[in-house]
Each structure stands twice: as C-alpha cells, then as structure tokens.
Write a structure and sequence with these properties.
about 290 residues; alpha/beta; TIM Barrel; 8-stranded parallel beta sheet; about 40% helix; about 15% strand; globular; binds adenosine-2'-5'-diphosphate
Length: about 290
C-alpha cells in the first residue's frame, strides 16, 4: 500500500474502499472483508445512508480504529455553520468514533454558496478542535474552488471528484494541483458508466478495448489497470465493491507498473462527458433530504 501525504501532513492510504450504493446489509460485510485483506481506508457519506454499517464493519473486523482512515461527507441539506457542526456529530455517532480522519463537503451548493462557505467554516473549526484530522470538498469545479479559497482560511486537503478514463477532469486536476489539494477519484473504475439507472445507454469503460489490451499485456484486469493508472498519476482511488473476490482484485494493484505510453493511451480515452450529476445543477430535491440523527 502506498500512503499519500495531505497538505497538512496527515497521511492517507492511496486506495480505499468505496461504499456508494452499497446496500446497508452488505456494507458491514464488505468493510470487514476489505479490512481483513489489508484495506486501511474507507470512504462513505451521510447521503449513502450506510455510515452505521461502516462502523459495524470496522468493529467486526477487529482492526484497531486508529489503523483505519475513515472519510465521510456532509450532505448539502446539512450545510450551514451550526448544521454542519451537528452533521459531524451525526456522522461520528453513526460510525461509532470520536474523531474522523477526513470530513468533506459532498458537493457545492452553487445556488446557496453562502451556506457552502458556512459549512466549510464549521469544518475549519472541527479541524482546529481536533475532531477531524483533515477537511476537504467533493465535486468542486475550479470556479467553486476559487470562491471557497477566497472566502475561507484552510486550503482543502482533498477534492473528491468523478474521475475515470472516460472523464479525466484535467482542469479540476490542474486546479487541485496548483493549490496542493489531493485529487481523489470517485468511480475510479467507471462504475458510473454502467450502474443501473446511471449508466443506461452509456459505454462502459470496463469494456473499453484499449484498457482490455493494456490489461492483457500485464496479466491484469481492466479494473486493476484503471486503479493503477490513477495511483501512478498520484490520485487517491476508492473503488466500490461488495463482492469479496472483486474487493480483493481491486487491492491487488501494487505489483505492476504501467508504462508512460500506457498511461498516455488511457488519458486519451477521455470523452469530456461526465456520468454523474453536474455539480452546477443540483436538484432542488437534494436540499430536502433529511439525514437521520445518530
Ligand atoms: P460490485 O459491488 O458488485 O463488485 P466504481 O467504484 O468505479 O463506481 O465501480 C463500482 C462498480 O463496479 C460496482 O457496480 C461494482 O460492483 C463494480 N466492480 C467493482 N470492482 C470491480 C471489478 N474488479 N471488476 C468489475 N466490476 C467491479
């Protein structure tokens, strides 16, 4: 496992288990299994409604809490200074921990940016109080970052965005790098290009012929090649799986190296088309979601 050092000196295991769309009853099992085989980083979110089961998986695994990097996200309906302080209590309570390793804003609220700023101010105060070890954002485009940086004090440690070979977000990656923000890839093997209800009618990046050819050349799978591409380019990657064989497969990516030519060929697959929601067009319903108390 490779560790990445965040801009505040905290280290984060580059590869983590994602649990977006992991059903609650499968999540505890997936988390315990991932920890058993060596994962030490789990990414969840209040809006995934499985923080409780992530905590249960952690306890079930027997792995010491301090050995695991726990990351979660504040949903937009909990934005605002006091609301976000309370969102931390809800998340920590459900996870069953006192502190979080990384707490990030799930996405900007472009039409209510002042609440986004207030929420981030709350993250800054949680950081100062030692309740969280690092803070950051998710789904921020460069113009959201510029505004946040102009109006707040702590540079985010992480910006977690949709990032896979069909949507490489070069401008976001450049803006993150310019400010010392780690780019973390959600859907790093392009699940968003084939998830039922999300990927319908889209081309699945898992079936891409270029990636298949590179995978064959290394005796690896397409998913492993995509994860390796992200890791070699310095990103954190958080593939989601609830299947034990695929959880293990996604972790087995530290024994091979892609060539510069392979990396460039994967970069060239970018379509410029996102699979997930446009961060500038949040749906009104997002703000009506009620995140349960712990
Ligand atoms: P499953 O949980 O049944 O394994 P992403 O993290 O890029 O969004 O991808 C997640 C999706 O990819 C999920 O549908 C997951 O399903 C599937 N998946 C995870 N790992 C692999 C793998 N190694 N090969 C193929 N599909 C995978």
């Amino acid at each position: 496992m490779i560790d990445l050092t965040l801009n505040n000196g905290v280290t984060l295991p580059t590869l983590g288990l994602g649990v977006f769309q992991s059903a609650p009853e499968e999540t505890a099992q997936a988390v315990a299994e991932a920890l058993r085989i060596g994962y030490r980083h789990i990414d969840t979110a209040a809006a995934y409604r499985n923080e409780r089961e992530v905590g249960e998986g952690l306890r079930r695994s027997g792995v010491d809490r301090d050995e695991v990097f726990l990351e979660t996200k504040v949903w937009v309906s909990d934005f605002g200074y006091d609301q976000t302080l309370h969102a931390f209590e809800k998340a920590a309570g459900k996870l069953g921990v006192d502190t979080l390793d990384l707490l990030i804003l799930h996405q900007p609220a472009p039409t209510r940016f002042e609440t986004t700023i207030a929420a981030y101010r709350a993250l800054e105060s949680l950081l100062a109080d030692g309740r969280v070890r690092a803070i950051g954002v998710s789904n921020f485009m460069p113009h959201h970052l510029e505004r946040l940086l102009a109006e707040t004090d702590v540079v985010p440690a992480v910006n977690q965005v949709e990032l896979h070979p069909y949507f490489t977000q070069r401008a976001v990656q450049e803006a993150d790098a310019a400010h010392g923000i780690l780019t973390q890839a959600w859907s790093p093997i392009g699940g968003i290009t084939f998830y039922p209800g999300w990927g319908d009618g889209k081309r699945s990046v898992l079936e891409d012929p270029t990636i298949a050819e590179i995978a064959d050349a290394h005796g690896k799978t397409p998913a492993q090649v995509m994860l390796r591409w992200g890791i070699q380019q310095g990103r954190s990657v958080i593939p989601k799986s609830t299947n034990p064989a695929r959880i293990a497969e996604n972790f087995d990516v530290f024994d091979f190296e892609l060539t510069g030519e392979h990396l460039a060929r994967i970069d060239a697959l970018d379509t410029g088309v996102r699979g997930g929601p446009d961060p500038d067009q949040p749906r009104d319903a997002f703000f009506d979601v009620v995140i349960d108390e712990a």
